[in-house]
Write a structure and sequence with these properties.
Blueprint (H helix, E strand, L loop, with lengths): L1 E5 L5 E5 L9 E10 L2 H8 L13 E9 L11 E4 L2 E2 L5 H4 L10 E2 L11 E5 L3 E3 L5 H4 L2 H14 L6 E5 L3 H11 L5 E5 L3 H9 L4 E3 L6 H8 L5 E6 L4 H10 E9 L11 H9 L3 E4 L11 H11 L9 E6 L3 H10 L6 E5 L6
Parallel strand pairs: 10-11, 10-13, 11-12, 13-14, 14-15, 16-17
Antiparallel strand pairs: 1-2, 3-4, 3-8, 3-17, 4-5, 5-9, 6-7
Helix pairs in contact: 4-5, 4-10, 8-9
EC number: 1.1.1.14
InterPro entries: ADH-like_C, ADH-like_N, ADH_Zn_CS, ER, GroES-like_sf, NAD(P)-bd_dom_sf, Zn_alcohol_dh
Keywords: Metal-binding, Oxidoreductase, Zinc
Length: 350
C-alpha cells in the first residue's frame, strides 16, 4: 500500500510498504481522510520520540474492509472513525475510567503505524461508527472530542462570559461547544485578523488582537471591570498561558488545552492572581471518559449530525498521501494561512 513514511531528521517519503496483518481482535480500515494534528507538528518541531520509521496520522475516518475472527462490533462496509488512544486497562486511572490519564497508553500514529496511508489496522474497540457522516467531517471527530472534553470539564454556566485564547482548529471547535452550553458571550483572542474574522462567524461576540490593542484593558471594558468567568487556553503559547491569569475574574476558572511548547515563567502579578483571586486552574488532556471512548465522542457525532457543530468550513487544505511532505513543509514554514489540513489517501495522483 502507499504510505507517507517518516524517517530520521523529519524526512517524509511517500512509498509502497507492506500492509499490516489483521489479527483476531483487529480491523482493517480503508482510510478516506486523515487530519494533521497540532501534536504532529509539535513532534516535527522538536524530536520524534517513537520508533522509526513511522507512519503518522491519528485523526481519521474510513471504511472497514477486513475484520478479525473475534470482532463483533463492526462488519465489512461499516463507515467508521478511528479512536487513536490504546489505554492499558490495568493502571489505577484506567480502572477508574480516567482513560486520558492512563499511565501506559499507546497511540496510533506514534507507537503504531497510523492513517497517512491507504489503509491501517487497529483494534476493533478503537473504531466508532459514523453512519452517513461525511468522511472529511468524521476525520475531525478526534479534535472535536478533545474540545468537547475541555468544555465538559470546565463546566460553564448559563450566562457566563468566556474568553478563548487561540482560534485555530481547537479554539473554534471549543467555541462551537461553548455555544451549546448557554454562555452569554464569547471573546476570541488571536494575533491573526483572519482567524478573528472567522471566529465571529462561529458565534464569538467580541474579538481582540493583542498586537493592536491592550488585551487586559479591553477585557475589563467588556466585563464591567471584573474579568471573564472562564478563560480557555487553546493556543499553546507561553504568552497566552500567562495572560489567562490576568483577565479572569475573582473565583473564575481557567482551562488549559494548548500544549506547552516552551517553559512558562510567570510574572509576579500573574502568579499572585492565582491565590489572590482564588482562581481554579484545570488542565485537559485527550478526549476520553467511561465507558470508552466516552460521551465526548458520542456527543460529537450527534451534534455534527444535527448540524449544531460545523466542521467542513475549518478545512483549509487537502493533500494526496504522496504529498504529505509538502503539507508539513507548508505548515512548518507558515508559507500559507491554514486551518485543518487533511491527507486524502485515496486521492488519485493527477
Amino acid at each position: 500500500m502507499r504510505a507517507a513514511v517518516l524517517y530520521e531528521k523529519n524526512e517524509i517519503k511517500a512509498e509502497e510498504i507492506e500492509e499490516a496483518v489483521c489479527h483476531a481482535d483487529e480491523v482493517r480500515v480503508k482510510v478516506m481522510a486523515a487530519g494533521i494534528c497540532g501534536s504532529d507538528i509539535h513532534k516535527m518541531q522538536t524530536r520524534w520520540k517513537y520508533p522509526l520509521p513511522a507512519v503518522m496520522g491519528h485523526e481519521f475516518s474510513g471504511v472497514i474492509t477486513e475484520v478479525g475472527r473475534d470482532v463483533t462490533n463492526v462488519v465489512v462496509g461499516d463507515r467508521v472513525a478511528g479512536i487513536p488512544l490504546l489505554p492499558c486497562g490495568k493502571c489505577e486511572y484506567c480502572q477508574s475510567g480516567e482513560f486520558s490519564l492512563c499511565d501506559n497508553y499507546r497511540m496510533i500514529g506514534s507507537h503504531f503505524y497510523g492513517a497517512f496511508a491507504e489503509n491501517t489496522v487497529l483494534k476493533a474497540k478503537n473504531v466508532i461508527k459514523i453512519h452517513d457522516l461525511d468522511f472529511e467531517e468524521a476525520a475531525m471527530l478526534e479534535p472535536l472530542a478533545v474540545s468537547m472534553h475541555g468544555v465538559l470539564g470546565i463546566r460553564p454556566k448559563v450566562g457566563d462570559t468566556v474568553l478563548v485564547f487561540g482560534v485555530g482548529t481547537i479554539g473554534i471547535l471549543t467555541v462551537q461547544c461553548l455555544n451549546l452550553t448557554g454562555v452569554k458571550e464569547i471573546i476570541a483572542v488571536d494575533i491573526s485578523d483572519k482567524k478573528l474574522e472567522d471566529a465571529r462567524k462561529f458565534g464569538c461576540t467580541h474579538t481582540i488582537n493583542p498586537q493592536k490593542e491592550d488585551l487586559k484593558a479591553r477585557v475589563l471594558e467588556l466585563t464591567n471591570g471584573l474579568g471573564v468567568d472562564i478563560a480557555m487556553e487553546c493556543a499553546g503559547s507561553k504568552v497566552t498561558q500567562e495572560q489567562c491569569l490576568l483577565v479572569t475574574k475573582k473565583k473564575g476558572k481557567i482551562g488549559y488545552q494548548g500544549i506547552a511548547y516552551a517553559d512558562v515563567l510567570l510574572h509576579e502579578e500573574a502568579f499572585e492572581n492565582i491565590f489572590r483571586r482564588e482562581l481554579t486552574l484545570k488542565g485537559f488532556w485527550n478526549s476520553y471518559s467511561a465507558p470508552f471512548p466516552g460521551k465526548e465522542w458520542h456527543n460529537s457525532i450527534e451534534f455534527v449530525k444535527q448540524g449544531k457543530i460545523k466542521l467542513k468550513p475549518l478545512i483549509s487544505h487537502r493533500y494526496a498521501v504522496q504529498d504529505t511532505a509538502e503539507a508539513f513543509k507548508m505548515i512548518l514554514s507558515r508559507s500559507e494561512d491554514y486551518n485543518k489540513v487533511l491527507i486524502l489517501p485515496q486521492k488519485e495522483v493527477l
